Amino acid sequence: MNFLFDGRSYTGLPGDTLAAALLRNGVRIVGHSVDLGRPRGVFSAGSEEPNALVQVGADPMVAATTVELHEGLTARSLRGRGRVDPAAADERRCDKGYLHADVLVIGAGPAGLAAALAAGEAGARVILVDEQPRPGGDLLNSRVVLDGAPGQAWAASAAARLAMLPETRILSRTTAIGYYDHNYVVAVERRPGGERLWHLRARRVVLATGAHERSVAFPGNDRPGVMLASAARAYANRYGVLPGRRAVVFACADSGYEAARDLAAAGAEIAAIVDPRGGPDRVTGVVTGVVTGVMTGVVTGTTADGDGVLDGVLVGDRLVEADLLAVAGGWSPVVHLFSQSQGRLRFDEELQAFVPHLSAQAERSAGACRGVYGTAAAIADGLAAGRQAAELTGFAQPVPVPRVPESDEPEPSPPAALWVCGDDPAASFADLHRDVTVADLARATGAGLSSAEHVKRYTTAGTGADQGKTSAVPGVVAALLGTGPGTTTFRPPYTPVSFATLAGRDRGPLSDPIRVTAMHDAHVARGAVFEDVGQWKRPWYFPLPGETMEEAVERECRAARTGVAAMDASTLGKIDIRGRDAGLFLDRVYTNLYSTLPVGSCRYGVMCTADGMVFDDGVTSRLADDHFLMTTTTGNAAQVLDWLEEWHQTEWPRLEVAFTSVTDHWATVAVAGPGARRVVAAIAPEAVDLPFMTFTEFAHGRVFRISFSGELAFEINVPWPYGRAVWERVLELGAVPYGTETMHVLRAEKGFAIVGQETDGTVTPQDLGMGWIVSRRKPDFVGKRSHARPDTARTGRKTLIGLDTHVPEGAQLTLDGRMVGHVTSSYPRAVLAMARGVGEGQRLVAHDGGREIPVTVVAPVFYDPENLRRDGDPFVQGGVSSFEPVRHSPAGNFAARFEAASKERVRLREVPFVPMWEVRGQDPGRGLRLGPAWWLVTGERPEGGVEVSGQRTVLEISGPGAREVLLTGCPIDLHPSVFTGHAQTSLAKAGVILERVGQDAYRIYVRSSFAAYLSEWLLDALTAYVASFRK
Amino acid sequence: MMLIECPHCGPRDENEFRYGGQAGVAYPERPAELGDEEWAAYVFMRDNPKGWFHERWFHTSGCRTWFTVHRHTVTHEIRP
């Protein structure tokens, strides 16, 4: 395999990491250190690497020890720190996935494989996550013999047994990066096309994350050629690469001897073994014949050639020539995930390491990650942990327990309690990645810092991309302070994660749901400029060719004031409210009265929160004695529904009333202007003579006579499928389309406040000059008592005023140098502000940046203060053609793309125009039960059903790959044993009802406004799935 | 991400829910009869213990049911 490193071409072997391939080619210097620019080489053989950081493609900084070589790989060395190039092409297609398990095992070394086997063979659903390309953990790097065969054979056989278990899933090349509340583990899988971020939830977790060998801080311990002993052993055994010809082994722990034995077997000369412990008899046996004797002592320094690469090791007065120094400083159990789970650690004096102490979650550590060293012991520990996890999740039936194999390893002996040696602290590196030396740490402790957390912040030790996994910092700080080692908090992610991985497919047009109305495509075709209102795309204005925004808005306003204009008002929240006590309920949540509203009439209302502040407003109409239709502001639709349900469920459950969102069911066209009657007559002749604030039913829906512009205006409501046809017809009849900007101008000119524009959660209806809408007759409503609180009742609060001069929104207002208020809405002919203690005619100063603009307070009504325009022009009888609108389904435009993307393994289609009803209270005996007393029924109208056929559409995904596609966006457990019927949950970022309608078939009921977003998302997911399946 | 047991839908991820603060704070019978202090206590004052807490959750993305959860605010342990 050919690859390029820093522009030079090299050859490696399949299975090599970039680090192994570089060593294979004799590349000793892989990068330079972050602060001091010292040459650095490969230090480890895993994700704990502090030195060998490289840039690969668009990925600005990865450890060469984790990069799998492939043909044509191109990498560049780094100086300790990568730099994101925003212009770099990123070809990755990352995504995410959700999986659930009884038992999640993290790490597929001896302990993890054993745990997965014990749990899986007991019948538990098991997920085994492992960082390596194949299971085995350290067995892949070692020459240990188990039951007379290579350890790798044991690993392969264990993996083969796991592969036979249908409910066990092995995720290789997958690093668990975070362990969160309630056994929620996030892991990154490196897939050929890009990473997948796995969200894993398990009832029990077994941590089998192994241990990292650690370094010792001695002078010159950072030179290329200084390497962890376990890494030297891994390169020799696994990759057949000799990291040096003549090696010194610094064996503070037994792993040094294993490394010496394996390096010698691979052909290296072992120049010396240096062991501060003097070489325990039971381990030196393994190197008999490899080296003549073990030197008792410590490494006190190194020497280097002209390039800075190691050429000698100092042991006291003696200089030993060597090009490899293998350091076995002892082991640090990988307690990162355990610590992230909020488990408590303790320092084990014998092991000289932090080990898990008290669990905080339903987990258990097994093997080296809890200080149980040795292959056979780790397997035994893993089996016990797996068996226990199975039992605790209800898989207690007796099964033959896998046997613990016999290992040829000697009994381990305790490591030396040695973290720092030699007498040049400024050249002794405690944290290689951050270039932190023993001298730096001494300065920190000398400055009085005594906690590991403070030393970390003072020196940056442990804050590198490797999080100090191999560093000697805790022991060095302890030695400096004369205390026991302390540790810092382990935080996710365990290894660096790129933002592209976290974003997954939620980028570009899919970064956030785009909600559209039934008329959206018509707006696009007309060249509308859109404005984001929450997740909605709303037409802002409709420019004609060559028109500026100002010109377009002026023209749209003129049409609404003098002729007829139309706006898509579908985004307004709409809530169907029915039940015997509906009127009483509305009396309690609105400041004004609704129980007295006649059937057929509409009333504008304001809602307050309990603190008396304006929360939302809108028009509510009485459809029948026990039936109302509420409208809310676009932005607050969901919050208002929540609010109503909260009060009903938690405070007044005895009131007989039920709420159904019909926002997406009804498409709304507002027709405004003195000529509006002519347009409405052609669609709904019944509506021509409607009095102000009343409504009528017509063939396809309802027409309300309400106005937000001061002009004669109607709002035509039709079910979603007819929305586009009605809109097109209204425009054909001569209405000029207008957007939200014109709507704002028209309402500001009338002095109508907008919730969220004039209000900000600190404004009462009285502050808005709307005391008239606050009932004095009602004994109570939400917020009433607060209107009598001293602060809300006082004079001198900010109130709504008008200004005579066009100054920018947000400008501060002063009076005699005192701040008195701010501008809330500003248009050429209408400026609204909230200000305290000012009256009409008063002169204020508006501050816009550095500019000071004199303004005068006027009444906050700039147009038709006598409401003379409200009734428009009289209707002149004309030829009225019948209107038969065509239907459009929310995903109708996607039919061809669905068809094209559907393959044998997974198919996608819309099931359009399904008649749907929501039923509350009484069980209709059919349909999908959505809540304790809530059903969705399709087909025939059930008794008491609210029609919601336009509220949602149905997308159907089927085929053997359907579940794998869904789990890339649906967080619930879709396993066939768990997910049998239906659930209301989310898919991607849209709320859905998911129904399993066959072995491999699912129906997705999605809100119509989210249908285009979800269709795009599903197409993307499906394409990615089909592509990955080909690989 | 906590796993919260909805009484209707079963265990779901925390982000399917909306938090509703302290449980058991009833809307006063007759607000008009309360003094300013008492009313302010209802509107603004809530317990914020370090430890076990009865709190309200609303399953916004699911069955839209309000229910009470007994949760430890430090460990996030949830008791039935």
TrEMBL record, chain A:
Residues 102-360 form the FAD/NAD(P)-binding domain. InterPro entries: 2Fe-2S-bd_N, FAD/NAD-bd_sf, FAD/NAD-binding_dom, GcvT/YgfZ/DmdA, GcvT/YgfZ_C, GCVT_N, SoxA_A3, SoxG. Residues 428-505 form the SoxA A3 domain. SUPFAM superfamilies: Aminomethyltransferase beta-barrel domain (SSF101790), FAD/NAD(P)-binding domain (SSF51905), Folate-binding domain (SSF103025). It is an enzyme of class 1 (oxidoreductase). GO terms for molecular function: sarcosine oxidase activity. The keyword Iron does not apply. It holds the Pfam family SoxG. Its EC number is 1.5.3.1. The keyword Oxidoreductase applies. Residues 519-778 form the GCVT N-terminal domain. Keywords: Oxidoreductase. Belongs to the GcvT family. This is Sarcosine oxidase subunit alpha.
From TrEMBL, chain B:
Coiled coil: none annotated. One of its GO terms (biological process) is tetrahydrofolate metabolic process. GO terms for molecular function: sarcosine oxidase activity. InterPro entries: SoxD, SoxD_sf. Gene3D superfamilies: Folate-binding superfamily. This is Heterotetrameric sarcosine oxidase delta subunit. It comes from Nonomuraea soli.
